[in-house]
Write a structure and sequence with these properties.
Elements lengths: L6 E12 L2 E12 L3 E5 L6 H8 L7 E6 L2 E2 L5 H4 L2 E4 L11 H9 L7 H10 L13 H13 L5 E5 L7 H15 L5 E5 L3 H6 L3 E6 L2 E6 L1 H7 E7 L12 E7 L2 E7 L3 H9 L4 E5 L3 H8 L1
């Protein structure tokens, strides 16, 4: 793999198996700097595995991974300090107090933002004087996020970072995330099943399915590409199939298609073959994920 300083993450031909099960199947993925990417995939699709392989935390069977143009297996300390990570599950030294824990980590980073840490502890209501073991699951998750973003990373990878947070705190987290990513050169990848959070963050969407990234595009492009088409006047045959029609539903005297990549002219031409009138309906990201995931 050649160095690519314009990419925060570059993966080529990544294969990862567990016994006879192939989780990542010669996957390719490149992330330019300055993006917010939401990684979607069904349970068991391999999202956590992909993130761990991208960080060099899990051995791979084939392929290569580079972060900021450096092979992940040989990252210099300066590059490691540019990366933040919140795993899906974590241990945070329950015997340590919150302030001690953060001060311990601060000693390793040149760009540790103590002012931001203090602000987040206050806004997210995490008591710095408490032992970590005394915190609730949601508070420990907040602390893990604070620790990950305090060093001002250029690449932040978050694996289900808001699973234990209440809706209000999720919104505060997203506001903080967007504040970080508005600065030049910052890249954030986070996997989540909460599609409304991805829509609120205006994230680029990457879908992991069958061991590969099936697509990666911004939300407006995805919503323009995947739509529901309702028919009136006449109905297309129930057994009609055509490239770009993901699903055909016909019941109770009505019919609709879920289409992927068919523009309005193509849809109108197909509907005209049956004397039908087609009307396009936008879909939420959740509905798109259910159809394509």
């Amino acid at each position: 793999m050649t160095a690519d300083q314009g990419s925060a993450l570059r993966i080529e031909g990544l294969r990862k198996t567990f016994g006879k099960q192939t989780v990542l199947d010669y996957l390719d993925w490149s992330l330019p700097t300055g993006r917010v990417i939401g990684l979607l995939g069904r349970n068991g699709a391999g999202k956590s595995t992909l993130i761990r392989c991208a960080l060099g935390l899990s051995p791979i069977d084939a392929g290569s991974v580079a972060l900021f143009g450096e092979p992940v297996a040989r990252l210099p300390a300066a590059t490691l300090h540019r990366i933040g990570y919140v795993p899906q599950s974590f241990d945070l030294f329950p015997w340590m107090k919150v302030r001690q824990y953060l001060n311990f980590h601060a000693a390793f980073y040149a760009r540790w933002n103590g002012e931001m840490v203090d602000g987040l502890l206050g806004r997210w209501e995490v008591d710095a004087a408490k032992k970590i073991g005394e915190l609730s699951q949601g508070q420990r998750q907040k602390l893990a996020i604070i620790r990950a973003i305090a060093p001002d990373p250029d690449l932040l990878l978050l694996d289900e970072p808001v699973a234990s947070l209440d809706p209000q705190t999720r919104r505060l987290f997203l506001e903080e995330l967007l504040r970080i990513t508005r600065r030049p050169g910052k890249t954030v990848v986070f996997s989540t099943h909460i599609t409304t959070d991805l829509e609120r963050a205006d994230a680029e969407i990457a879908l992991l399915k069958s061991g590969r990234i099936q697509f990666s595009c911004d939300l407006p492009t995805l919503k323009a590409r995947v739509r529901r088409i309702d028919f009136t006047d006449a109905l297309p045959p129930a057994d009609f199939r055509h490239p770009g029609i993901v699903r055909h539903v016909q019941e109770n005297g009505s019919a609709h298609w879920i289409v992927d990549g068919l523009d309005n002219d193509a849809v109108a031409a197909l509907a005209g073959r049956f004397g039908a009138t087609a009307r396009s309906q936008p879909m939420s990201l959740e509905d798109i994920f259910i159809e394509l995931g």
